[in-house]
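#help-structures
NK: newbie question, is this the right format to request a structure? protein is Heme chaperone HemW
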Amino acid sequence: MTDLGLYIHIPFCRSRCAYCGFYSIGRKPDAPFLKALAKEMEMRSPAFQDYLCDTIYLGGGTPSSLSENQLAEVMDNIRRRFHISDHPEITMEMNPCDMTDSYLRHARALGINRISIGVESHDNRLLRTIGRLHTASEAEKAVKRAWDLGFRNISVDLMYELPGQSVMDFRKSLLWAVHLPITHVSVYSLILEEGTRFAQLADRGKLPRPTEEESWAMYQDMCRILPHYGFERYEISSFARKGYRSRHNRKYWELSDYLGLGPAASSRIGRTRFTISPGVRMYEKDLLTGSAPAEEIEKLTEKDEMEEYCFLHLRMKEGIPLDDFEHRYGHPLSFWYGRQVAMLKKQKLLTEEDRHLFLTYHGAALGNYVFEQFLRDE
């Protein structure tokens, strides 16, 4: 059987964060949505009977907005419709506000064995600025509660380059996080996504951002502090204790097959990528009247895939495996990108070792610039 990553998008939030560009709406999941999601599983699963789901990821939105009974219904439908491996990684994103003893016990009993918590910052002022509803104390208690109840694979998200955030604010968040009982940290710089409140404020010149020097200092702190406390940087934004890298996220970076279900979820099977249209009500209407949900389908050319292969692999610590690239595309990387690679090596942004091409420390800091060099003009 072929391995498959399964992603379930739960597009509901108590409120919308000022920075979030993911599709979500501000209400709780209801029966029509759960019925539509079950119908989509029923509709899509026959095409995946030769696949084995070794990772499952409930993302959002806020998956923990599902009630205990609703979560049980989703997990039951997944197990009825898809083949699940004997030792799957099953991740669920959670909001600290939802992580009661009862909810965590229930999730663990349903097979959830990895949780990802949107902590974002240790600074309550910054949490209010970005629209988070929890405090740092509540987040800390939620993480410790999950550990006490038996979760041994816990990831937290942190953010930097936030409006009004100082270098010391971010350093305190890092030092606070590494002393929590966690196994993984995802660190994201603020990206101004179109349509978000922060993007609108920035357009009006009303969003104070850290200076370039402050941003660089935050980046250096991230690269220094997390490894010092045992978190290896294995991808540009991802740090893990030994044995706790995200198996599901690696599928995205390695161009493996994954199936996304729910409004706005994306899938990639071979060289076909398809994304379900956002819009909960339209999603429900389509599926509950017997139609497939509206989606956008893209067939990747070899050129498209080659570009993605390069910059997604470069996101990872191991970089581009040169022998695998040549086997996959019939020519060595230098055939397509010799000039670009030579230039990036000269700039000390790329280096090569043991037939792998990977980002240097400074290359990782300038990742987007490096990735752009692998877009081919034809």
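mod (FA): yep, format's fine, and the tokens are attached above. DSSP finds 15 helices and 15 strands in the chain.
NK: thank you!
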